[in-house]
Each structure stands twice: as structure tokens, then as C-alpha cells.
Design a protein that fits this description.
The protein is α+β, with helices and mostly antiparallel strands. The protein has helices spanning 43-61, 64-79, 88-111, 124-134, 143-170; strands spanning 2-11, 17-27, 33-40. 54% of the residues lie in helices and 16% in strands. It has a three-stranded antiparallel sheet with strand order 1-2-3, with no helix packed on it.
């Protein structure tokens, strides 16, 4: 069983203080444990790790239809571009997808799993503009051209949802989107 855990290791003269440590390793049984690496975590890194975990718990608590929509977004923005890494459109899509994911984790650190997370997709406006300018150069009869058109449609629908969420956040709906995280 592979295990990643964050623990607090006592340090200092009186051992009353503790410092967070991230450990990665695996366990075959209770008697056989191997720690591959561990490193001390600064307070800023600890906050980002906690935000990442909070973000992931929020995703897992969302309704099934929302999770399926998110899986579709991950497929078209994060997986399919890997098959076309030689193309600038795929590189831009993957880069903006990863930047958006990091932005959403930072937004989670600021506001929790709130509607403000929709702002993490606002980079897609830039991507849609880039793809729109190149659309006439991409034939619609091959897989790459079909993917670009599907990507643009799916991301545009997502942006409509995200803009609505951010406006609702700005108007005062700042509660977490799911309960119990």
C-alpha cells in the first residue's frame, strides 16, 4: 500500500513544539515499512497542502453529475492534449489547465471551497481567444480539429457556469459549495 501522509515531528529542546513533515513511502505489512523520502514543510507550504486537500475533499463531496462534468473537463483539457503535444494549441491548453488548477488551489486557501473557484477557469478566456483565431486553419474532419471544437464548446459552457458562480460570490454567496469538508 502506497501512503502519503503529513505528520508532526517533535523538535526543539523540550519537544513541546512540532514541525510538519511530509512523508512518502509504502507499507507491505505492519512489520515492513519503507519511507522513501520526507521533508520539513514551511508554514506557507503547509497551508497550500491543506488547501489542496480541502479542494480535493470538496471535489469528492460534489454531486455525481458535477463530478462527471469535472471528469469531462479533465479529459478534454488535461488528457487529450497529451496526444498532441507537438501542436501549440495542445501545449497552450495543457499549460492553462495546469495553471488554472494551481490557481484554484490558491483560491481554496483564500476562500475555502466557495463559488470563487470559478475564477480559476477565467484563463480559459485567453485559450478560447487563441483557439478562435486558429480555427480556420484546423480542419474539422480529423480528430485534432474535432477535439479543438469540442474543447471550445465544453470550455465555453463551463465559463458560463463559472461566471455565474463568481457573480454569486461577489453578491455575497460565500458559503462553501458542499457540506462537511
Amino acid at each position: 500500500m502506497i501512503k502519503i501522509q503529513m505528520i508532526k515531528i517533535p523538535y526543539g529542546e523540550n519537544c513541546e513544539e512540532s514541525k510538519p513533515v511530509l512523508k512518502f513511502g509504502f507499507r507491505y505489512s505492519n512489520l515492513f515499512r519503507v519511507s522513501i523520502f520526507e521533508f520539513r514543510i514551511s508554514n506557507k507550504r503547509q497551508k497550500m497542502i491543506q488547501a489542496f486537500l480541502h479542494f480535493m475533499r470538496g471535489l469528492l463531496k460534489m454531486p455525481r453529475y458535477a463530478q462527471l462534468w469535472l471528469v469531462l473537463l479533465v479529459i478534454v483539457n488535461g488528457i487529450v492534449p497529451l496526444f498532441f503535444l507537438g501542436r501549440v494549441e495542445a501545449q497552450a491548453t495543457l499549460g492553462i489547465f495546469l495553471a488554472g488548477a494551481l490557481l484554484m488551489i490558491a483560491l481554496t486557501a483564500l476562500s475555502g471551497f466557495s463559488r470563487l473557484l470559478g475564477a480559476g477557469h477565467f484563463l480559459w478566456f485567453i485559450l478560447l481567444g487563441l483557439l478562435w483565431t486558429r480555427l480556420d486553419q484546423l480542419p474539422a474532419d480529423d480528430f485534432f480539429g474535432l477535439w479543438i471544437r469540442a474543447l471550445m464548446l465544453i470550455n465555453a459552457v463551463s465559463l458560463l457556469i463559472d461566471v455565474t458562480d463568481v457573480v454569486r460570490y461577489a453578491l455575497g454567496d460565500r458559503a462553501e459549495m458542499v457540506e462537511g469538508i
